[in-house]
Design goal:
single chain; alpha+beta; five-stranded mixed β-sheet; five-stranded antiparallel β-sheet; disordered C terminus
Length: 360
């Protein structure tokens, strides 16, 4: 019922992914369990392989038996190369809920719920309470299946407003030994389930009208193994951008505070990562260009001055330069990089352009 971790992928590949910072392991606060998940570095660098894709909240015990197995990482339709999917391919379409993924984990004292990277996050603790108070006594969990939920409650709102809903919405499950997605309709569940839609083919799903107050769709291809994709509505992406307040100044402030680009992207939808990369690269590129020009001019001035020159001699030339502020710092053997960076502070008006991402 519970396969060994080595049956999913090469253990050496997992160790490399952990040592290189693409996967992290979190320990259960009371049990000899670990939850294994990809990191923001993997997401930012798009370092997707068999290990990082499957490490999306795998739970293992001390013997590395896999106790819980969520969906492997899946991607937006637009992230796949053109022609990857036949528009006539048969699909099963479900609502893409906008909360936190909840993973049902068996324990000696009953089931509890973890999130993708933690046994003890606020969302995990809240979801476990809901499970224990409403569902634990009456739900007959099918052995060998990991139940997956969207954790929805007002304090956990991301973009979509679900009002006062405070519940576990069943998304479906995963067969632990094979990784096969299991539809919510195949599982006994007394609570809410993610809605499904009658769009029989990929082409029809892509042409579906936008729904008010929704994120998008999750599509499963029943004729193609475990393949899943997601389609996000353009208005959801735009609203997420507004709610997060993402703009060029926030990127600059994050870099100024010592955050990496990957850390700035953590928590943002994948659609915004390229934009953040571009802003960061533009800012650092401008800083580096200004510094290179200032250093080159400093060298030219010094080389042109007569032997035994003084600071006053240098100032007579450098004082006429548009880069004089940087030149005098270089003269004093001080790095002007931080001062240059401060001059590059963007306005808050530069935001990502909302480009339609999921058109066929």
């Amino acid at each position: 019922m519970y396969p060994h971790l080595s049956e999913l992928f090469d253990p050496d590949a997992l160790r490399r992914a952990v040592s290189e910072g693409y996967v992290r392991e979190q320990v259960h606060p009371a049990l000899p369990y670990k939850i294994i998940g990809y990191t923001e570095k993997a997401q930012f660098e798009r370092a997707w392989d068999e290990v990082t894709r499957q490490c999306r909240g795998l739970v293992v015990d001390a013997d590395e038996r896999v106790l819980a197995r969520p969906y492997a990482k899946f991607f937006n339709y637009s992230e796949h190369p053109e022609g990857t999917f036949d528009l006539g391919a048969r699909v099963i379409v479900a609502d893409k809920m906008d909360g936190s993924l909840g993973i049902l984990v068996p324990t000696p004292g009953g089931h509890e719920i973890a999130t993708r990277g933690s046994f003890a996050s606020d969302q995990a603790r809240h979801a476990t309470r809901v499970w224990q108070e409403r569902y634990a006594a009456t739900t007959e969990v099918v052995p060998g299946i990991t139940y997956l939920f969207e954790i929805i409650y007002p304090a956990n709102r991301i973009v979509v407003d679900y009002g006062s809903l405070d519940d576990l919405v069943l998304l479906g499950g995963v067969e632990i030994c094979t990784g096969r997605p299991v539809a919510a309709s195949e599982l006994s569940w007394a609570g809410p389930t993610a809605a499904t839609f009658d769009y029989p083919t990929l082409g029809e799903a892509l042409a579906a009208p936008a729904r008010e107050g929704a994120e998008g769709y999750v599509l499963r291809f029943p004729d193609h193994g475990h393949v899943m994709i997601k389609i996000k509505q353009d208005d959801y992406v735009a609203l997420h951008r507004i709610i997060t307040g993402l703009n060029a100044r926030l990127v600059w402030e994050g870099l100024t505070g010592g955050r990496t680009v990957a850390e700035i992207c953590d928590g943002l939808p994948d659609e915004f990562h390229d934009w953040v990369r571009g802003v960061a690269a533009g800012l650092t590129g401008r800083r580096d260009a200004i510094l290179a020009e200032a250093r080159a001019e400093h060298r030219r001035i010094v080389e042109a001055l007569p032997q035994g020159w003084t600071r006053r001699d240098y100032a007579e030339v450098a004082g006429r330069s548009a880069r004089r502020g940087w030149l005098f710092l270089l003269l004093d053997d001080r790095d002007p990089g931080a001062r240059v960076w401060q001059t590059l502070r963007p306005s808050g008006d530069e935001r990502p352009v909302n480009v339609p991402e999921d058109n066929a």
